[in-house]
């Protein structure tokens, strides 16, 4: 999701007198998008430095570089690509003759949010990837080539290098791998996957599900529940179950906004990502005790890519269609053995005691 506070201005900024509050908010937003650097709060009026920052923003998005905020075509959103977690900015005409300046901060998943493809990007994408050639790589024209050069340079310089310098090595590596265009999967070992705290948490959620739901006949699979409850003394049965411990929702939001450097790195590198556990368990009843022996396959499997209306998707897809970037799969797979017992009391299965061990393959 995005949090997008809109700042209404009393008059256009850059011509005549400007409202000091409008100027301060504009200066902060330009600083967040990387188009300007200002000491402290800055002056309450439009300064030469602020005008240059406005021009840089306008130049980036094909607007007339006149240092005036408020002359964008009505409804046109000019947004610098946040790319999995950074900041962006909208400039548009508001209703009733007032100008609206909106600064947008990426606060959650790379798979959600409202960030429309700008008309400039849509127009260039339509030329780079012609409908008459829906598959394969289309060779861009000279002007489109310059546009793509600028987009790729922006991604490599402003994100890959900045993330390396700000202790986000995995985010930098993944974006660079995407831009290199090999499409080769990024496969992690079990221990490498567990080095990421969100994956450790996902693995724990999956184990908890099997222990507290599946093995005590409280899962969402009625057949499994009935099989365990109906076992007679000396009988053995096999059940199968699976559970998703995906990294999303509150966990992803907290990491994106207030997480540690390591957590922010993971969020920018992988976004919301999928983790799944598949269990195959043999249950044997002896008296009032159930004995369990099973194998659980832990799977972390996802794709590094961009989809509208995700931040940066317009630029990223333009690069893909020109053969200058390519999605790739990432993840890890490992197995664990689960053994333990549970008690049968008054027709209910309780008190599971389970031990987990890794299987080295």
Provide the descriptors you would attach to this structure in a database record:
four-stranded antiparallel sheet; disordered N terminus; six-stranded mixed sheet; 361 residues; elongated; single chain; Nuclear Transport Factor 2, Chain: A; alpha+beta; 25% strand; Muramoyl-pentapeptide Carboxypeptidase, domain 1
Architecture overview:
The protein is an alpha+beta fold and 361 residues long. It contains eleven helices and ten strands. The chain folds into two domains: 106 residues, Muramoyl-pentapeptide Carboxypeptidase, domain 1; 153 residues, Roll (Nuclear Transport Factor 2, Chain: A), CATH 3.10.450. Strands 5, 6, 7, 8, 9 and 10 form a six-stranded mixed beta sheet that branches. Strands 1, 2, 3 and 4 form a four-stranded antiparallel beta sheet that branches. The longest helix is centred in the middle third of the chain and has 24 residues. The radius of gyration is 27 Å and the shape is elongated.
